[in-house]
Design brief:
CATH architecture of one domain: 2-Layer Sandwich
Distance between the termini: 43 Å
Helix content: 40-55%
Organism: Takifugu rubripes
Number of helices: 16
Structural class: alpha+beta
Subcellular location: Mitochondrion outer membrane
Membrane topology: Single-pass membrane protein
GO molecular function, one term: nucleotide binding
Protein name: Mitochondrial elongation factor 1
Shape: globular
């Protein structure tokens, strides 16, 4: 009887504190927002766990005091994620409270009974016992890594489009000097996650070395290290018309915007995509809503209707190569300057990652794919693009030498902490071009949302792997 009375008093005390926390968290939600509710929930969870393990009233009160001290350290994020976190957190708190109170009311089972019932537990409860290392490996296999058959299907569709575009340009514009076209991007480099849904069709232009010069961004009036220009040389000795590309000159420079506009009219609007799609058992149509040259390819079923499978997007990308320098015609990145070309750092970054992993059999690429999958699946982290994540790992590799597969959990947690620091500073500089801030395109609201979500993941990184 004494034991039951003590247990009941402890249960009532914990219930009162839980109800007080929840009611006040909802009150704060209206004033301070979902951020304080999300972090306060972690303190409530620890409070419940500690109270459940306590054997007498003194220990319950001591643990309550410790949890209140943790809660007092919580500060709300300046920008709040009300739409997602509010409902998730309230449901999580209610579920956890109900479960823990039920556990408090039940007598403790013997160790033999616990071991005998291990195999009968639901899978969800068994997953909770996994370590972070095991959770990361599981997340990589189920979410980040792609099915080889899915990758082959997407590559085959992209190669078919490459063949069709190459044949069209060769027959309609045989005098256009082009190098060999190919497929590139993350699909080819095994860096795509979640689903194989996009690829790049690289269209390299062939320039006469004596008539053209690639001008680095720092030497132009734009002074942007990623915005290069292509200057026409010796125009007084070799007047306009000597080069095929002179027709796209604007102010003495080869205009990327004029070239993309021509490709849009000559390829995207002229090619008979319905006929090509019927021969490939696909529905092919130019994607609307952007300045890039993008095709949407949707597989068809036996009845000739869209099968509902994930469509594949193929972007036609005109580019220039000179040594290690790759310039792409992407007006969406260089606007409003019509003559600017974008310096692509993707080949340098990808090559460096592969070299580092090959040298020590490291897990850098695996870490990158996990981070990309996490950002793509999490609404608050979705604005984070791949380039900052790649450079985050490259910067970390300069300081950390152990990238073995057994240290995957340590490096993952370290990436979260490092990324929070970069977001606080508002700058993550490129590994190869330190003058470039890779977070410059993010708004203040996006930075706040991502920073808060990552801050919550510092103590419980598993919330990113749901």
């Amino acid at each position: 009887m004494n034991f039951q009375n003590t247990r009941r008093r402890g249960e009532d005390g914990v219930a009162m504190v839980i109800n007080f926390l929840l009611s006040n968290a909802r009150l704060v939600l209206g004033v301070g927002g979902a951020a304080i509710l999300g972090i306060a929930t972690l303190a409530v969870k620890r409070l419940i766990e500690r109270a459940g393990r306590a054997a007498d009233d003194e220990k319950v009160e001591q643990k309550i005091t410790e949890s209140w001290e943790e809660l007092s350290l919580v500060s709300a994020s300046p920008t709040l994620i009300q739409r997602e976190i509010e409902g998730v957190v309230i449901n999580h708190v209610a579920k956890t409270t109900k479960q823990q109170k039920a556990d408090l009311c039940q007598p403790q089972k013997s160790s033999l009974e616990t071991e005998s019932n291990c195999d009968s537990k639901p899978k969800k409860l068994q997953l909770c016992a996994l370590t972070l290392q095991e959770r990361l490996q599981q997340f990589y296999c189920t979410r980040a890594a792609l099915d080889p058959q899915e990758v082959q299907r997407a590559q085959a569709l992209a190669l078919d489009i490459c063949t069709e575009v190459h044949g069209f340009l060769h027959s309609r514009h045989p005098d256009m000097p082009l190098e060999e076209m190919s497929i590139g991007g993350s699909l080819l480099d095994n860096l795509q996650v979640i689903c194989a849904d996009h690829a790049c069709l690289l269209v390299p232009l062939q320039l006469e070395a004596s008539l053209w010069r690639l001008v680095p961004g720092e030497e132009t009036l734009l002074t942007h290290p990623l915005h290069w220009m292509v200057r026409r040389l010796n125009i007084e000795y070799f007047p306009r018309g000597r080069s095929y590309w002179d027709r796209y000159l604007v102010g003495g420079y080869l205009s990327s915007e004029a070239l993309v506009n021509w490709f849009n009219k000559a390829v995207m609007e002229t090619v008979n995509w319905p006929t090509i799609g019927s021969s490939m058992d696909c529905l092919i149509r130019p994607a609307l809503g952007g300045s890039d040259l993008r095709l949407e390819i949707s597989p068809l079923d036996e009845n000739g209707s869209e099968s509902g499978d994930q469509p594949v997007f193929v972007t036609i990308l005109p580019l220039l190569r000179e040594g290690d320098v790759v310039l792409t015609a992407q007006p969406e990145l260089t606007s409003p300057w019509v003559n600017a070309w974008h310096l692509s750092l993707y080949p340098w970054e990808t090559r460096r990652l592969v070299e580092l992993d090959a040298a020590d059999n490291g897990c850098r690429i695996k870490t990158l794919k996990i981070l990309k999958a996490v950002c793509r699946l999490n609404h608050a982290l979705r604005p984070m693009e791949a380039a900052p994540l790649v450079n985050l790992i490259l910067h970390l590799s300069d300081r950390e030498s152990d990238w073995s597969d057994s240290s995957l959990d340590v490096r993952f947690q370290q990436c979260i902490t490092e990324l929070i620091g970069y977001l606080e500073q508002g700058a993550l500089h490129s590994h190869f071009k330190p003058a470039v801030n890779l977070l410059n395109s993010l708004s203040e609201d996006q930075v706040d949302q991502m920073g808060f979500m990552l801050y919550c993941a510092v103590s419980e990184p598993e919330i990113l792997l749901v």
